[in-house]
Amino acid sequence: MNTRDYRTETVAMERKMYLLVAKRTTGTVVKGVLRIPELVLKRMLSARQAVASAVSEWDRMFDEVRGQFDAVSSEGAAVEASEGFLYQCAKCGAPSRSHFGGKPDDQIIHLVGTGDPLAVPDWLCGKCFGAVTRRAADITMWYGSFVGVVTSGLIPGYRITADKGRLCSQAEFQSPDELKEHMRLVAARAGANACINFLKELHEESVLAGHSKNGNPYYRTARSFSATARAVVLEPDRRAYAHSSGR
Ligand SMILES: [Zn+2]
């Protein structure tokens, strides 16, 4: 990967060219002004010569920078076409080009959660983008193989092979279904395919709903839900299956 910053280089060269043109213009104006005091002819002539040689030197420098500018900008355009544009990784700061890295989309950010330091809607280097996409793929796998959310400590027909610890819903949800959906995602992020010991909590809060005609406030009750649960990895229990199917 080519991480040379052609844009900054060409911008610096453009600035150099601009300054040379500005110097040349000022020099020419000085030359014009010097034409006036005819009494100091000698001094004027030598000054004119000095200005003329300076102008030709600025022209030579301008042509030199112009040549470098053309070379660097055409090389930069070729690199950009084959490797993409240059940026700094939003996570680790490493220089990268767009064909090697990527930008996490809404789906990736939703899967890994905004608490993940790699969940940024900005350009990441190949290494960081690879890490976040692998993580999103893992979560998708756990989410897809989800067994369920139960209040009890086990699910019939399955055995627990790993305990990933206690989970809390970080936000409050409007409905139990929304809450369970969230717990499924949180469990998948923890590398689990089930939630046991699911404990739901109802929150009721009085919120201002408006004012009556004579200015008195009136309230309504807002309900929301939060929960805790244990995230576990479940596998089908073959013995239970053999027993229940009579084999
Ligand atoms: Zn990075």
Gist of the model:
With 247 residues, this protein is α+β, with helices and mostly antiparallel strands. The chain is 48% helix and 23% strand.
The percentage of residues in β strands lies in: 15-25%
Structural class: alpha+beta
CATH architecture annotation name of the largest domain: 2-Layer Sandwich
Output the helix-strand order.
Answer: HHEEHHEEHEEH
CATH names the topology of the largest domain as: Translation Initiation Factor IF3
- As for the number of domains, it is 3
Described by strand count, sense and barrel closure, the largest sheet is: 4 strands, mixed
- Taking the alpha carbons of the first and last residues, their distance comes to 60 Å
Gyration radius, in Å: 35 Å
Q: Catalogue the ligands.
A: zinc ion
The tally of beta strands, per DSSP, is: 6
Instruction: Work out the helix count.
Output: 6
Strand order in the sheet with the most strands: 3-5-6-4
- Uncertain runs are none
Task: Name the assembly state.
Answer: single chain
Task: Assign a percent range to the helix content.
Answer: 40-55%
Question: What is the CATH domain class of the largest domain?
Answer: Alpha Beta
Q: Sum up the overall morphology in one term.
A: elongated
What is the typical, i.e. mean, pLDDT? 89
